[in-house]
Amino acid sequence: MSPSPLSRRTVLGAAVPTALALSATPSWGRPNALPGGGDLGPNVLVFDPSTPDIQAKLDAVFAQQESAQFGTGRYALLFKPGTYHGLNAQLGFYTSIAGLGLSPDDTTINGDVTVDAGWFGGNATQNFWRSAENLALVPANGTNRWAVAQAAPFRRMHVRGGLNLSPTGYGWASGGYIADSRIDGQIGPYSQQQWYTRDSAIGSWLNGVWNMVFSGVEGAPAQSFPNPPYTTLDTTPVSREKPFLYLSGSEYRVFLPSLRTNARGVTWGNGTPRGTSLPLSRFYVAKPGVSAATLNQALTQGLHLLLTPGIYHVDRPIQVNRANTVVLGLGYATLVPDNGVTALKVADVDGVRLAGFLVDAGPVNSASLLEVGPSGAWRDHSANPTTVQDVFLRIGGAGPGKATTSMVVNNRHTIVDHTWVWRADHGEGVGWETNRADYGVVVNGSDVLATGLFVEHFNKYDVQWFGERGRTIFFQNEKAYDAPNQAAIQNGAVKGYAAYRVGEAVTTHEGWGLGSYCYYNVDPTIVQHHGFAAPNRPGVRFHDLLVVSLGGNGQYEHVINETGAATSGTSTVPSTVVSYP
């Protein structure tokens, strides 16, 4: 889409865990056994302080990736522990930068890790699919710029200065996510419409536009929604940080952070972080072109999966059947399901960790793209839940894609920590029926927690939640732009499908900081009855809800059920509900 004012959102430790060690024994003795470990491939660039021409190498990757929104390039930029001087790592699409220490402070860049929007005329609303992790930054001018939109996590970072979340010129911005990070100075969101910060420490926070949510953040502004629009929880009920690659001497290992309850602040502030680690030899290091059969053979042997940067076509589901299995992607490794299969399925087992990859729907409709647990899953995983972190799902954009439902969560106690589930509104293969996708996320399992849930543009419901005792902290949604007319979204007697629906049988559910926007640009006369639908009972509770009509392109009649004022005219002013019921 063009960057005109009517384009997208422009209105504005060290041991293997005992359970893991006993859960499966790799079949090293089999003649056809796959090896663990190995090199990380050509698209993982590893630097140390003595590496020559680091800046030139960073610039070369950026030149290729800056505007390659739907390209095939995938890169991970990894920095060994040490101190680096005078660098500016500009990040384009499908580019991850990370330190290889056990703590962010092990790897210090005297310089910047920059995301800006020059490629898109100063509009940052399409700065997707990139990340920064596990580094300390000393910004050249005192403030680092990180002007991102969805699917661009800032994790386990230490900024010894400030952080500016807007593009140069303070153009449109629609992000974003920070976790397990320490920002010594001020965070300035400026034009950012919404943001979620979890389990971090910040010097101060400057302002808010529509929806700024904090949980477990030292230094966060006080609860004050809707003016200023701050939703602040003192702690995060349950969290477990994303696995990460690091160096122990010259050996690559993957660190697995421990589960925390009522979490607050960073995990790495005082000494060695809590958790365990695995040597790279326990991973099948996958390269693009490998078959799903080979990936499944590796998993059956008892290996974990490390997906190096690239695109992987799978003609059958990747089956994660063993407790405590890790599937970790580098540089936005991308799974494409062929012939309508589901890309990845998880069994009803403890402790699976899915992290750091993209699932891109194929042209033949998939019933689902990702299934966390089988239908009817019932086991208690409270002590060791599955985590889904920085796993992003896309239907269309890079080409025709279809999926009836993108993500299905059946396993109890699953933590979905930062996802963007997106039916594309621009790019290739985009149209009301061309990239048909009725449902974004369906939660059937009980006791599921979502922290940082971004789900957009589905033909029907974006989120449906049928499990008991579900909780969501921060939700960002846009209804599908391209509905051709009112009839196309009619839901029986109801005008439109809610962005977030809690099933009628649910007795307990809670959400904090949830927003839905409409931008019906094909037919601006479309009316959406409400953004949120839920049974009206005391155990189903919501805090700090908003709906917004972007420039009057469509309207909401209510916020949740029959509650909340209608949006009005072209003013792009949120209609809010502070507490429901």
Automatic annotation (TrEMBL):
Q: Which CDD domains match?
A: GH55_SacteLam55A-like
The protein's matches in InterPro entries, at most eight in alphabetical order, are given as: Pectin_lyas_fold, SACTE_4363, TAT_signal
Q: What is the name listed in the Swiss-Prot or TrEMBL entry for this protein?
A: Coagulation factor 5/8 type domain-containing protein
Which species is listed as the source?
Streptomyces aquilus
